[in-house]
Design goal:
Blueprint (H helix, E strand, L loop, with lengths): L2 H8 L9 H11 L13 E2 L5 E5 L7 H4 L7 H12 L3 E2 L11 E2 L2 E5 L12 H17 L5 E5 L1 H10 L14 E3 L5 E5 L4 H5 L5 H9 L5
Helix pairs in contact: 1-5
């Protein structure tokens, strides 16, 4: 792997301060939680992935604590076992970054790499972080499919490519062919809230991955 590609896949460094509000928010947790990751969360998975799963931003006590996307929060409890079921991961998900889990043909990232207050990054913060997502996608030479977890992630992907949201309506299990040839798939977010309220069931989530088979 070239140094340029490795840098693109690495994303922002842990000392990134491009978004002062987010950097300050993270800094406020360092003294009381020195064992937390507390920084821009790097993507997780294969550099040869054909599938890039895109969330919005890290969770405070999930990825911001553990340093791995969707690890340690309710969303990972559905996401990672589903990836195992569909042959996109192997090992055991144990809610910590040093478990035995390995992704196969898949990679997980966030449109905004730092945890935002109230899980709500601003439009400016999303734009500031956009080059990291663009660079990451360009560095994934086998990339074919983007899976947006939730409408906000769906909209973030469209904004990254300067595409009109009206032309690509969000709907669970929908597939969209983008002008660059990539396929964007949609899913309701696999958050604990959506699962508990039955907005998203494990079977509905599995349907999304069934729709990607053969892509």
């Amino acid at each position: 792997m070239t140094n340029k590609r490795a840098a693109a896949l690495a994303g922002p460094g842990k000392d990134c301060t491009l978004c002062p509000r987010l950097a300050g928010y993270i800094d406020s947790f360092r003294e009381d939680n020195p064992d937390w990751f507390n920084g821009p969360v790097p993507a997780f998975g294969s550099a040869d992935a054909w599938l890039l799963i895109v969330g919005l931003a890290p969770g405070l006590k999930g990825a911001n604590r553990t340093g791995r996307p969707f690890t340690g929060d309710g969303a990972g409890d559905l996401l990672y076992p589903t990836l195992v079921d569909f042959g996109l991961a192997e090992g055991t998900y144990d809610k910590r970054p040093d478990d035995s889990l390995i992704l196969k043909g898949a990679r997980i990232t966030n449109a905004v790499r730092c945890v935002p207050p109230e899980n709500k990054p601003t439009a400016l913060e999303a734009r500031t972080c956009r080059p990291f997502l663009l660079d990451e996608m360009a560095a994934l030479k086998n990339l074919k499919v983007l899976l947006a977890l939730g409408k906000i992630a769906h909209d973030a992907i469209l904004s990254t490519f300067d595409l009109r949201k009206a032309d690509y309506k969000f709907a669970h299990a929908a597939l969209h062919t983008l002008p660059n040839g990539l396929i964007m798939a949609d899913s309701y977010h696999c958050s604990r809230y959506n699962v508990n309220t039955r907005r998203l069931t494990p079977e509905m989530f599995a349907d999304v991955f069934r729709g990607l088979e053969g892509k």
